[in-house]
User: Fold this.
Amino acid sequence: MSLEKLLKLKYLLLLKEFPGVLNLMSSKVSLNRL
Assistant:
């Protein structure tokens, strides 16, 4: 596997899990506000 393919795969995974990460961050922020 070339480095470019690996980077693309990682990028796709990041895009896939980005909404989950956003939800996690927003929930942490709302927890800090309490």
Observations:
- Helices lie at 3-33.
- The mean pLDDT is 87.
- DSSP finds one helix and no strands in the chain.
